[in-house]
Design goal:
By secondary structure, the protein is of the alpha/beta class. The protein is 48% helix and 13% strand. It has helices spanning 2-27, 77-100, 102-105, 117-120, 126-141, 151-154, 172-184, 192-195, 212-222, 234-251, and strands at 43-48, 54-60, 111-115, 146-150, 162-165, 187-189, 226-227, 230-231. The longest helix has 26 residues, at 2-27.
Amino acid sequence: KAARNAQITLNSIEKTALHLKRQLAVSMGITPPNYVNPALYFQGDFHITPNGEVLLDSLQLPDVGLFLTCLGGLVNETLGEIMKIMEPVKDAVIDAILEGLRDRLRLRRPIYLITRDEVVNSDEDVLEYLELQKIQLELKERGIEAKIIGVSEAEYLSHDETGLLFNISLDNKYQDFLRAFLRNGPAIYPDPFMILLRGEMLTDYKAVRLKESDIEDLRSIVVETVVGDKFESDRNRVYRQLILLDYKLRKLGIEND
């Protein structure tokens, strides 16, 4: 049942991603495509409720935590057990990449591992870069050249080049990348338009989109509450914040914990 739930969710993502892809293509005066590049791998995180219902908490796409295989000397006993679990996951991911790109690999061109510019420039997320280096090494051991590039550089990939998309920020750079992807036609997996939906359609739980004003309201609730010229006592402040949060979240359509 869990696998079926994940596949249903993935099918829904692909359908909506195709709609968004065609919509942007039309606005750019490009012939609308009739396909999306599939996810070569994904990981489903599931919750089993007390009544036995299986709910998809989140669909990890494309990040499946392979950085946990790269921690080396930082390992304690618990983390060591997690790393043992992740080793076969890592092997399964590499196998899925090789199988999914079998035809593309015949072109004898590098595979581009696409991430945020900040990761490539070493400005943030060392673990993400370690994960990409691990995949790069695994592919090299199988005779496949892989290059790590940022999303800005990925705008210049041509139709005969292939990329794997990793953790990307959905900012203005990504919007530019989507347009370049449609214009130039490289084969990128999963389809960049699928990533647009990761915050809304990758769970069985109800999702609520917050406006900026809603976010500001929530922020104002959780900062220190001041009465007159002095802070409330911790007990009163926490109780007040909990009541206000509960009220605000219910108004936004979040009806339970």
